[in-house]
Amino acid sequence: MNVLAVIPDQTKAAALEERFQKRLGDALSFRQSSSGKRALELLQTLPTDLIICARETDDIAGLEVLKAVRKARDTAVILLDRSVLSRFSPGPFEAILETQAHPADVLETAFSLLVSSGRIDDARRPQATFSKGRGSRDAKVSGTLEVISLFDLVLLLTQKNSTGRLYLLLGQVEAMFVFQGGRLVHAEYSELTGEAAVMKVFWKAELRPDAEFFFEPSLHKLPPGGVTVHSSVQEILLKVAVGLDRRREPAAEQ
Q: Which domains does the chain have, with CATH numbers?
């Protein structure tokens, strides 16, 4: 993956590079520029899969970089400036996150954009282990979230057009996601359902990286409540990334 970070803050750029390096290893080419104009010049000469742009660069606003990229080519862009959402709508290859978005959320958003747009397949993503069972259930995919993040796992099932139920053991509570043809259509966590349950599960999963999961391929009917998740997986994961970032902010201030 060829990443260009247009970020004047060297510490933030280094944190992003470290997070991407841990996931991609030798498959990563990471370049950093503090100048938006220089980044646009580099874009013309160097292969670039993804641009991560700060709210402000040394010479032009991050939003202006995004607009220029949009006119020139279909390169994926993550802009770290949610203040622009009131006057600007991101396109299919674009995402807008909080200015102080956690590197983990930037990474997961990057994969979501690039996989859903077809620019990379899921072959470079961590793979869960395949097994023959867990208890009375015929679990075909199982493991822990130390091996594959919940973001990656949901995208993996989506890309494979999976139908079945994903169970996650989070402490003493078993959560469930239901997939139909690769769509996440239902979620349960304790008394919560729908997108509220999805957000809760991701938050709990972040606190429990060793949580166990298993996926049961099946043609089960939906629970009595029917479809409770109506957004696309990409929209859900972007909401999750923003929500998790907001939850982390109070903790960081303490």
A: 2-122 (3.40.50.2300), 127-247 (no CATH)
